[in-house]
Amino acid sequence: MKIRALSIKQPWATMIAIGRKTIETRTWQTSYRGPVLIVSSKLPDFDHPLLPTSSALAIAELSDIWPMLPADELAACCSWHHSLFSWELQEIRLIREPFFVRGQRGLYEVEITDNIECAL
Q: Is there a domain that residue 76 lies in?
């Protein structure tokens, strides 16, 4: 089965996977709504040997997108900026055994098996 994926630098990918970050910010929008595979980018923003890179970490529902508001800062784990869009992620499910995914820019499709085990 195919799923849309979004590459996110560490540590933010892990913060989404564990439910700490529920808004991802981007400079662009999409009309797509639905399941998104959260993939950690190959290169993190800073070096941390305990955080996985190039890995599928979670599956979330992209439920809405809007121009970022100052009120989004806490859920986005970043400061407000007028040029950003808030991507609301709901029903985040941590993948029990992360697996390799070659990241790409934008939203891209990844082939996955139907039996990915997610934590409750």
A: yes
DSSP, res 73: H
Note the pLDDT of residue 118. 73
Residue 117 within a domain: no
Number of domains in the chain: 1
* Nearest-angstrom CA–CA distance, 67 and 30: 12
What pLDDT is attached to residue 49?
A: 67
Residues for the chain: how many in total? Answer: 120
CATH of the domain at 56: 2.30.130.30
In the chain the beta strands, taken as DSSP E runs, fall at: 2-8, 23-26, 34-40, 55-67, 85-100, 107-111
CB of 24 within 8 A of CB of 65? no
- In order of 55, 94, 105, 114, the CA distances from 117 in angstroms are 15, 9, 26, 9
In the structure, what pLDDT confidence band is assigned to residue 47 with cuts at 50, 70 and 90? low
Q: Are 77 and 15 in contact (CB under 8 A)?
A: yes
* Interacting residues of 34 by C-beta distance below 8 A, sequence separation 6+: 4, 61, 62
